[in-house]
Design goal:
Number of strands: 13
CATH class of the largest domain: Alpha Beta
């Protein structure tokens, strides 16, 4: 199956069950939240009173929801959606909301048809009890309305002869989940295997905000088979030196509160600037230790890829960093350099910064002073003069690719072509070097 909808009374456990499926089956499942609830929450609508506004908002949101469903299916995942517009139509009939019922036939064509529906079933009385327990009053529905809604929903399924599975959800959660997994025919993969040939180690380099973390997010979004086939990246570990750097900043904050001097950084424009340039070599040594641990650990029969992410700057920044990497890593590595000009790096650095979530990997910001001092110059063009080639690092030939990441894009089609254009010839070179 490619597309399934899970329905049920309020507080039956739909969201909780689907969250667990998404967590334990990341290779095969993607979950879309209930559209109506998502709209009500985002737009702060009264679910039972602002029905006309809700109908307009649903109609406006359907093209994006359809695109999301088609994208998930196109990437080889099982799309599981929580609830559907047939349920909302049944509620509308139960509440006397003629506007949505009249609009339903026109707008429902915007939604793809699922291969199956699964109804998690509990008595109405149990739904009322669970609604009280979850304490989300804006979404509570009384018993008479639920009874009428169920009758209308049963007629909706009967009129359309839908493939509907009934699942008793008034049982312990492990039993419900076991049966849901069986209905969806989800195989559990204890060892997530690489499908196809893949890099051992990929060094992911580039200025701050050049698009390295976005590259990782894109790869996470793909199924293992498609990622390996198109980009030669197996199920992967990410080793990034930024969290290590940020920890040193926080250590300095602690020393400062204790009345001691900061060791590695100073406060700068609401963030931090590095004051001890020896920290850059320290970070590489920490990367060496972590990556070597991963490479030396007992591996499952299938291989994994290690993505090693860092930024450097200055007249010899990358040359110094690469020369400090362990030969054990270099012998198994290829390099992807994500190229953007300095001013573009600064623009993206500012755009992505969210002061309320500054601890997030994608929301950290480098102050302008630090950007200019540390990353204003970049030695990568001087050590890698072509788009593809190889570098002699500590006596090891390491293949590289320089990927132009301008203009910025969030279009998966654009990114797929951009990443594949760099990685496919890089993998061919890496495989030849390994041979």
């Amino acid at each position: 199956m490619d597309y399934v909808i899970v329905e049920g009374l309020p507080a039956v456990g739909k969201s909780e069950a689907l969250a667990l499926l998404a967590r334990f089956y990341p290779e095969s499942v993607r979950v879309l939240p209930e559209l109506v609830k998502q709209i009500v929450t985002r737009q702060n609508l009264d679910l039972l009173r602002q029905r006309d506004a809700l109908t307009a908002a649903i109609a406006a949101a359907l093209p994006e929801r359809r695109a999301s469903i088609e994208d998930i299916i196109g990437r080889g995942f099982l799309c599981i959606e929580e609830s559907h517009l047939g349920v909302h139509r049944a509620y509308s009939l139960a509440l006397g909301d003629a506007a949505f019922v009249d609009a339903y036939d026109e707008i429902c064509g915007e939604v793809p048809k699922p291969e199956a529906f699964v109804r998690l079933e509990i008595p109405v009385s149990r739904s009322i009890e669970r609604q009280r327990a979850r304490a989300t009053r804006p979404f509570d529905v009384d018993a008479p309305t639920l009874e009428r809604m169920l009758g209308e929903l049963d007629r909706w399924h009967a009129d359309r002869a839908t493939p509907l599975f009934h699942l008793d959800a008034d049982r312990p959660p492990d039993a419900v989940l076991r049966d849901l997994v069986e209905i969806l025919d989800l195989p559990y993969c204890a060892a997530r295997g690489a499908l196809g040939e893949a890099f051992d180690v990929l060094l992911l380099l580039g200025r701050p905000a050049s698009g390295k973390s976005e590259f990782v997010d894109f790869m996470v979004s793909l199924s293992p088979s498609r990622r390996a086939a198109a980009f030669h990246i197996a199920p992967f570990d990410v080793v990034d030196d930024f969290p290590i750097l940020w920890e040193r900043f926080e250590d300095d904050d602690i020393w400062e509160r204790l009345g001691r001097r900061r060791l590695h950084s100073r406060r700068c424009d609401g963030n931090y600037a590095v004051t001890d340039d020896g920290l850059w070599a320290f970070l590489i040594e920490r990367l060496n230790r972590r990556v070597e641990e991963i490479l030396a650990s007992p591996r499952p029969p299938s291989r994994r890829t290690v993505l090693v992410e860092f930024s450097r700057g200055g007249p010899t920044g990358y040359a110094d960093a690469l020369a400090r990497l362990s030969p054990a890593i270099l012998r198994r590595a290829a390099i992807l350099y994500v190229s953007v000009p300095f001013e573009e790096s600064w623009r993206r650095n500012v755009a992505r910064y969210d002061d309320r979530r500054r601890s997030g990997i994608l929301t950290h910001s480098v102050p302008r002073e630090e950007m200019e001092r540390t990353y204003g110059t970049d030695d990568w063009p001087s050590i890698a003069g072509r788009s593809h080639g190889s570098l002699d690092i500590r006596g090891v030939r390491v293949p590289y690719a320089t990927m132009d990441n301008v203009p910025e894009s969030t279009d998966p089609t654009v990114l797929e072509a951009r990443y594949a254009g760099a990685l496919q010839p890089l993998y061919a070179a890496w495989r030849n070097h390994r041979a």
